[in-house]
Amino acid sequence: MPGFGVQIQGQPAEPTVATKHPDRLLLSYLTQDGVRVQRTVSIEANGSVKQTTVLSTSDSSTRSVPVQLSFGMSLNRASYGQLTEGGPIPLPESLNLFRVAKDGSSFTMHNPNLQANAEGILMADSADFEGMTFHDDWQTFRDEPVQCLGTACVRLTPGVPVTITLSLRLYSNLSSGTHLGCEQPLDPTWNLQDPVAFNIIHGNLQYVLGNCTIPISESSTCVITDHVALPLGWNRDN
Questions:
Q1: Which pLDDT score is estimated for 56?
Q2: 162 shares its domain with 207
Q3: Residue, of 181 and 74, whose pLDDT is higher
Q4: Which residue range forms the structural domain that includes residue 222?
Q5: Burial zone of 135 (CB within 10 Å; 0-12 exposed, 13-18 middle, 19+ buried)
Q6: In a domain, 185, yes or no
Q7: Whole-model pTM?
Q8: How many domains does the chain have?
Q9: What secondary structure does DSSP assign to 187-235, as a single string?
Q10: DSSP readout, 101-151?
Q11: Which of 229, 230, 231, 233 is nearest to 214 (CA)?
Q12: Is 134 a domain residue?
């Protein structure tokens, strides 16, 4: 079972070109069947993950390209047993309640033991695209990830690219705090000429914002240093 995302059938005829950015990854390759695949995986301002796949062909005739939509994913809580002297912390039961539309246009996944949810949508800009085919629209998976695969065919006309967009967003039912990081994204106002220094400082900022910030009210966020955050999972230092 492949992982999560849209899969394009066909072996690459050339090495995949990958371009990395702080908030997105770009992939480009040509299949042995003459289909150009350009894919972008990005993090949006609302915190969702978006996979955009653009298919095109330079052949003289229309062709049909098999594609798959795989949902090899699971909602689990990480174990911090390696940070405690009292042994592993018991984990909630792995329970994934998964539902997908028959054509794959929308899907949801819920783990009631974590009060965690995932939801997403699938779109294509081609009028000929009839969606994916899923036989089971409601499934329950215990102690294993979701194993659900849909299939479809995309008709490609020379010179007319087709874009398939898949979006996924994770969220919690808990309302103990407000995550302010994605509500009002701001562009950086500082600029460094040295690319090495820029990457080092930018990486440190991402680490602090992602791991050392705690929302404490609607308008305030607490920032703690990592040497304080790490021992919070250590029995002898609590």
A1: 94
A2: no
A3: 74
A4: 195-237
A5: exposed
A6: no
A7: 0.68
A8: 2
A9: ------S-HHHHHHHHHHHHHHHHHSEEE-SSS-EEE--HHHHGGGG-G
A10: -TTSSEEEEEETTTTEEEEEEEEES-TT----B-S-SEEEEESS----EEE
A11: 229
A12: yes
**Rounded Cα gap, residues 64 and 195, in angstroms:** 44
Query: Is 1 a residue whose pLDDT tops 90?
Result: no
Tokens (6 digits) for 51? 């996979």
Whether residue 60 is found in the same domain as residue 116:
yes
- Using an 8 Å Cβ cutoff, are 31 and 12 in contact? yes
Cβ atoms within 10 Å, residue 167: 18
State the Cα angle at 26 between 1 and 150, rounded to 5°: 30
Report which DSSP code applies to 160.
Answer: B
Positive or negative torsion for Cα 146, 147, 153, 156: positive
Q: Are residues 13 and 46 in the same domain?
A: yes
- The per-residue pLDDT for range 140-177, each reduced to its tens digit, is 999 899 988 899 999 999 989 999 999 999 887 755 44
**13, 89, 238 from 79: Cα distances, Å:** 41, 7, 18
| 50 phi/psi in degrees, rounded to 5 | -120, 130
* Number of C-beta neighbours around residue 79 at 10 A: 12
Q: How many residues make up the chain in this entry?
A: 238
Q: Which residues make Cβ contacts (< 8 Å) with residue 12, sequence separation at least 6? A: 29, 30, 31, 32
Say if CB 181 and CB 44 are below 8 A apart: no
